[in-house]
Design brief:
heterodimer, A: 579 residues, alpha/beta, Rossmann fold, five-stranded parallel beta sheet, 20 helices, B: 197 residues, Pyruvate-ferredoxin Oxidoreductase, domain 3, six-stranded mixed beta sheet
């Protein structure tokens, strides 16, 4: 019986059917569901790794140890994992290994939209790309056969639309796969220069074999139709092409690295006009052009964001939808914002009020950069805040007491520890605020080493953040409640005065994980409210402004009585009513 | 677009239950034997932002996303979101709007006004506009959060979905402790449509 599955669940199912017994990941939208789901299957060891590099390394060890292994991450996670990945391509596998790269064209939930098909050529590994959930399952199974046949890790590249679209899937029978025998083989697995030179020869040989495979595999297929137009495409773009141009000829690529050169030549010769449809980078186009084939591509299509059927119809012709309704009204935007009761809100309000330079990091709290909180100066990637604070201090030299880094607990464990060591070692003086809400909130509340629970919610040794921070040499460590704004502010003022580094752990559970109190509520005393809007500037859906009456008001359906608005009110107009 | 696909766009504010709604409707379409695709938004956009789920079904569905001007039905859980996504509706499409208002940040902070009469404005343009107070009906059923399932009931009426199929899908998707309220909400929505149709 067929059932609906998002692409990520289909990948998990495919991995289970392929006999995967080790799965590891760091959560990241749009990849998170793959390993959280796979970990629930019988006989599968699943884990949240502290970061993607560790996940890749655990994966490499499991593969060498003989297990079929899955490693999953979002596109930028592959950058973190790139170091072990590139060289693991040299050693090759024992048990098959698939690394899932979940790219995010359009940046629904990411800081860039890099195209990880590029890793295929750069790291010299095969890349396969499904176009719906059924293919996600089937291609995942196939990827393990490719991995073991060619002795290489395989990248399964997906995009947000594949990861989070549900399509019908027919499940298969799980394969019985024995753990492969491990044989010590230093020339294969120890990448000393002398051995690595030998392995590079193998990598190049392997790529020739993979190119032959790519020319013959069923997942690269020509669908002949009207030969006046031929489109080469892959992934979810194939679905968009078929939606608007059901009758044209299509070369659908399931393997996008190495490309099937002979198949592409055959297709090019069989059509009058050849066009490549690929989101983001001209990865296929540049290679096909380098072979002297006349082809059109990015002169018609943008390098930015996601494509859609209507966009393809507009650029290439085909079935276009009717003109929809145009509304001649200004629609106010609805940006995402921190939840009512979020422990991060008061922190950013305070940082802004103190006019500090704030080096930010990746998580829900990146929303602290948006109006009205406006509490962040820079944010680049996971773990970057601490190193950036150090760099800014060393560059400016004059008033380091104005620089702080803010980083979430999960992000700190991911990649904030080494830059903190740098600050201690090279005698920086920044103040680091660890926003500890005891979960990985943004991606849907996954556990991590400092929550004391595993991926299956079983107890695990809990990483002690205070002890860790002290151990790397931070002498000034304190824990504050971020909902107590005075306490937070005085901690910041004191620590910023020091000529040595400090860590403030702002600890309070994510508001979505605690039940709001039933016995108290916030009320506004209208006589005391002056309409100054200070409480509105915390950007909370629990409080709003009535322009006509020049008064603030509480929204009782969203307010969770965190009391932050009451603390920012300078006229004592917001009261807590018990009972 | 290819063949005769039915396209339903479900729009609202993060947390209003667009995901559950799309999953219920998709399951009904699967049970009725159609090819089905659903596109969802997870992650950053869920934090109180504007969210959309898309359900497409028919004999053969390619794209998981709906084009502008191609939605047969828009199910809007909030008035402003109805307006934001209106250009996705087909010229002869139907829009069902929950008469609910959730102020976005620029309105909360008093920077801009919420366009109060926005639903009436839509009704003037779109012949098949249905504005319903699903939130109040849901409160009557026991929980305002079941407003999305009230809307499912109205939609099921409009689409002529067999009631039993929808109830089966609700049973499969909703946690047991919330089931009674949701089944009641579905019934109320379905009756509401029967009364106005």
């Amino acid at each position: 019986m067929k059932r609906l599955m998002i692409g990520n669940d289909a990948i998990a199912r495919g991995a289970y059917e392929a006999g995967v017994t080790v799965a590891t990941a760091y959560p990241g939208t749009p990849s998170t569901e793959i390993v959280s789901n796979l970990a629930q299957y019988p006989g599968v060891y699943g884990e949240w790794a502290p970061n993607e590099k560790v996940a890749m390394e655990v994966g490499a060890g499991a593969s060498i140890g003989g297990a079929r292994t899955l490693v999953a991450m979002k596109h930028v996670g592959v950058n973190v994992a790139a170091d072990p990945l590139y060289t693991f391509v040299y050693t090759g596998v024992n048990g098959g290994l698939v690394i899932v790269s979940a790219d995010d064209p359009g940046m629904h939930s990411s800081q860039n939209e890099q195209d990880n098909r590029g890793y295929g050529r750069f790291a010299k590994l095969p890349v396969i790309e499904p176009s719906d959930s059924q293919e996600a399952l089937d291609f995942t199974r196939l990827a393990y056969d490719i991995s073991e046949e060619f002795d290489t890790p395989v990248m399964l590249r997906i995009t947000t639309r594949l990861a989070h679209s549900q399509t019908l899937v027919e499940e298969g029978e799980p394969k019985q796969v024995e753990l492969k025998e491990y044989k010590k083989d230093a020339p294969k697995y120890v990448m000393l220069p002398g051995f690595a030179r030998g392995r590079h020869v193998e990598v190049e040989k392997r790529l020739l074999g993979l190119k032959e495979y790519s020319n013959n595999t069923e997942i690269n297929r020509i669908e002949w139709g009207d030969r006046r137009l031929g489109v080469i495409t892959s992934g979810v773009c194939y679905q968009y092409v078929r939606e608007v141009m059901p009758d044209i000829s299509v070369l659908k690529l399931g393997m996008v690295n190495p490309l099937p050169d002979k198949l592409i030549r055959e297709f090019a010769e069989g059509v009058e006009r050849l066009v490549i449809v690929e989101e983001l980078e001209p990865v296929i186009e540049e290679q096909v052009k380098s072979w002297g084939i006349t082809v059109e591509g990015k002169e018609h299509f943008t390098l930015l964001g996601e494509y859609s059927p209507e966009y393809l119809a507009e650029r290439l012709g085909g079935i276009a939808p009717a003109q929809g309704f145009g509304l001649d009204k200004e629609i106010p935007p609805r940006p995402p914002l921190m939840c009512p009761g979020c422990p991060h809100r008061g922190v950013f309000h305070t940082l802004k009020r103190m006019r500090l330079k704030v080096m930010g990091d990746i998580g829900c709290y990146t929303l602290g950069a948006l109006s009205p909180l406006d509490g962040m100066d820079a944010c680049v990637c996971m773990g970057a805040s601490i190193g950036m604070a150090m760099g800014m201090e060393k560059a400016q030299g004059v008033d380091p007491s104005k620089i702080v880094a803010v980083i979430g607990d999960s992000t700190f464990v991911h990649s904030g520890i080494t830059p903190l060591i740098d600050i201690v070692y090279n005698q920086g003086t920044s103040t680091i605020v660890i926003l500890d809400n005891s979960t990985t909130a943004m991606t849907g509340h996954q556990d991590h080493p400092a929550t004391g629970l595993t991926i299956k919610k079983e107890p695990a040794p809990k990483l002690d953040l205070e002890a860790l921070v002290r151990a790397v040499g931070i002498k000034n460590v304190r824990v504050v409640d971020p909902l107590q704004l005075d306490e937070l502010r005085s901690a910041l003022e004191e620590e910023l005065q020091r000529r040595e580094p400090s860590v403030i752990i702002a600890r309070r559970s994510c508001a979505l994980l605690v039940k709001p109190p039933v016995n108290k509520k916030m009320v506004i005393e209208n006589d005391l409210c002056t309409g100054c809007k200070l409480c509105i500037r915390i950007g909370c859906t629990g409080i709003y402004f009535i322009e006509d009456e020049n008064l603030a008001a509480i929204n009782p359906t969203t307010c969770v009585s965190c009391e932050v608005c009451a603390q920012v009110c300078t006229f004592d107009a917001i009261k807590i009513v018990e009972g | 677009m290819a063949g005769k696909a039915m396209n339903i766009l479900i729009v609202g504010v993060g947390g209003q239950g667009t995901l559950l709604t799309s999953r219920i409707l998709a399951q009904v379409a699967v049970d009725l034997g159609y090819d089905v695709k659903v596109s969802e938004i997870h992650g950053m956009a869920q934090r109180g932002g504007s969210v959309v789920s898309q359900v497409r079904y028919g004999e053969k569905i390619y794209s998981p996303i709906i084009s502008k001007g191609d939605a047969d039905i828009i199910l809007a859980f909030e008035k402003l979101e109805a307006a934001r996504w209106l250009d996705y509706l087909k010229p002869d499409g139907m829009i069902i709007i929950n008469d609910d208002r959730v102020d976005p940040l620029p309105v909360m902070s008093g920077k801009v006004k919420y366009p109060e009469d926005i639903d009436q404005h839509i009704a003037q343009m779109v012949e098949k506009t249905l504005v319903v107070d699903a939130s109040s009906i849901a409160v009557g059923c026991g929980n305002v959060r079941a407003a999305n399932v009230v809307m499912v009931g109205i939609l099921a009426g409009a689409m002529g979905f067999p009631e039993g199929e929808v109830e089966k899908a609700i049973q499969a998707m909703v946690p047991p402790k919330a089931l009674d309220i949701n089944l009641k909400a579905f019934k109320e929505g379905h009756n509401l449509y029967s009364n106005i149709a």
